[in-house]
Every structure is written in structure tokens, then in C-alpha cells.
Specification:
The protein is α/β, with parallel strands linked by helices. About 45% of the residues lie in helices and about 20% in strands. It has 13 helices and 8 strands.
Length: about 325
């Protein structure tokens, strides 16, 4: 992972962190009021469950504050700020919260993120595409050609993310194993957006089909070409046009492409706050753990955006 040139304004980050719990709780409650309850929460038989919105807020707030279930029981469950916010005398137990979190499947978390970032994902959107690895606790056997021996190597997932250039929000993502190439995921990452602006990505996403797809959506692709790339269009005219721009006006092209470095800030925050490894053993729980981290990151980032707007402070400064 490279070094980032731009970073989040330290004044914004520090002031939001001082009141993170209250701000995040307010944002999550407003989000929960727009959502539908997860499938399977209201059952026909058994005791009537409590308000699902309270459990949803607490489940995501625990991730935002980077708390384990033990820390939730010891610190959050008796926090007077949370009790007074919901107007209750008692919060759900850790086991009750854990059962509710299991109802948050991949489709529902995507639905939550889409509703959360909707005010920041309309009109023409400038995007950054990149991928990063997330380690798993399991290991697999790999054959080393250099030494001719078998070695144990830690497995990992590859997170493909579409990130807003202006706001630094994760708008869409895909998760694959570490051996998958980035290029086939570009279309699925950009398909939910009707009109594209700048699309910045490294050479891993470079292909004639991908560039033509971006241009057909009124976008401007700035995807780095590989060293052996030629100008032959092969029925994709966008490739020849972009290759000409890349070779003849390289200084201008590099100036725009340098903005892609902001993606390193996003990945460094996610790995720095929530770690770069997943601790669950089952695949479905790993997916949920990783997606909840992406949801929690977007919650934090939106709080930073709102604070910078209200106090007329720049969101990004030079590192």
C-alpha cells in the first residue's frame, strides 16, 4: 500500500472523535428510521421482540467504537448517554445483540449502505477503484517454485471498492479470493451508477471493454495502461482515444491520475482502526464482519463531512 498525499483534516477528526458516540448514535437512529427491519426479525410465534431499531443502532455503534461484546457489556450497556438517548432503563444483553447481528446478511448491509450514502451519490460521480487484501486466520499449503518445497501461507480476501473521489465514501464493493484479478470487477462496481465522471484506477483494471463501458456512461476513464499496451482499438474506439491522450499529453494525464492516491487514505483508515485481518472462522461470518466495518467507516466519514460543512473547514489537507 502506497503513501497517501492528502489526508483527513486533523481538526475535523479530533473534534468528531471527542463526541463520536452521540454523533454516531444520532446518525444511526436517523438511518434506522428509513430502513425496513431485517428479514426474520418479526416471527409469528413466541414473545414479541423489542424495537429492532435500538438493536440495529447498538450493533453498528459497537463496530464504530471498535468494541467487543465483552466491552459492550462492561461499558456501553450501562452508559447513561445511550440510556437517555433511547429513553430506557435497560439495553439489550450481549447475547440478544449477537443474535440480532446474525440477521444482518450481505444483502441487508448493502441496503443499509446504499441508504446511508444516498445524499452523496447522486448526479455525476467521480470514482476511484482499487483493491486491497484482508488477511484471514486460516492458512493453506502453497508450493514454492524457487525452493521446491511446500509452505504454509495465510489466506486472504481481496476487497474491490468503488470510492467517491470527493467525499472518500465507499459506494460499492465486491469481495473475492486473493487469486482473482481486478479487471472483471469494474463493470459490477460501476453498474449501479447511471452517470459517471472521472474514473481513476490502476493498470489492474485496464481493458478495452472496461474503458468502453465507462465512456458509454459519459465517464472519463483515467486507467493506467500497461507497458506493452498498443493503440489497436479492436472494435472499442474509447481505447484508441484514451491511449492517444495517455501518450501525447502525459503530463496532464498524470496530474489528474495523481488524485487516485487518495484511496490509500481510505484503506489505511479501515486497516488502522479495525485491523487488517478477519477473526471469524466461517465464510458467512467473515463477510458480515468485513461489510460491517465498511458500514462503520462510512458512518465515521459522513460525520466528518457533516462537521466540516457546518464549521466551514476543509475536509482534506495535504499529508
Amino acid at each position: 500500500m502506497g503513501k497517501h498525499i492528502m489526508r483527513l483534516n486533523p481538526k475535523v477528526r479530533s473534534r468528531v472523535n471527542k463526541q463520536l458516540l452521540v454523533l454516531a448514535l444520532t446518525l444511526l437512529w436517523n438511518l434506522a428510521c428509513k430502513l425496513k427491519p431485517p428479514k426474520g426479525y418479526y416471527k409469528q410465534k413466541g414473545r414479541k421482540p423489542g424495537d429492532w431499531r435500538v438493536k440495529f443502532c447498538l450493533s453498528v455503534l459497537r463496530i464504530v467504537l471498535v468494541k467487543s461484546y465483552d466491552q459492550y457489556e462492561a461499558e456501553m450497556q450501562t452508559d447513561t448517554r445511550i440510556l437517555s438517548f433511547f429513553g430506557v432503563e435497560r439495553l439489550p444483553s450481549r447475547s440478544n445483540l449477537h443474535i440480532f447481528t446474525q440477521l444482518l446478511n450481505s444483502a441487508y448491509i448493502r441496503y443499509c449502505v446504499a441508504e446511508l450514502v444516498k445524499p452523496y451519490a447522486y448526479g455525476v460521480i467521480d470514482m476511484i477503484l482499487d483493491a486491497t487484501g484482508v488477511s484471514l486466520m486460516s492458512r493453506s499449503i502453497w508450493y514454492n517454485l524457487r525452493t521446491g518445497t511446500k509452505i504454509m501461507k495465510r489466506d486472504c480476501y481481496k476487497l474491490h471498492a468503488a470510492i467517491s473521489l470527493r467525499w472518500g465514501l465507499i459506494l460499492n464493493w465486491r469481495i473475492s479470493n486473493s487469486k482473482r484479478h481486478e479487471s472483471p470487477f469494474l463493470i459490477s462496481l460501476l453498474s449501479p451508477f447511471k452517470v459517471l465522471g472521472l474514473v481513476l484506477a490502476d493498470a489492474g483494471y485496464s481493458s478495452r471493454k472496461n474503458l468502453q463501458y465507462i465512456v458509454d456512461k459519459c465517464g472519463a476513464p483515467f486507467i493506467k495502461f500497461s507497458k506493452n499496451a498498443t493503440a489497436k482499438s479492436k472494435n472499442y474506439p474509447a481505447w484508441k482515444l484514451q491511449h492517444y491522450f495517455y501518450t501525447t499529453m502525459r503530463f496532464v494525464w498524470d496530474k489528474i491520475y495523481s488524485k487516485r492516491n487518495r484511496v490509500e487514505n481510505v484503506f489505511s483508515v479501515i486497516k488502522g482502526v479495525w485491523g487488517d485481518s478477519l477473526h471469524s472462522h466461517k465464510k458467512r461470518r467473515r463477510m458480515r464482519e468485513l461489510m460491517l466495518r465498511l458500514l462503520a467507516y462510512n458512518v465515521r466519514q459522513i460525520l466528518h463531512i457533516q462537521f466540516s460543512r457546518e464549521n466551514n473547514l476543509p475536509l482534506w489537507v495535504r499529508a
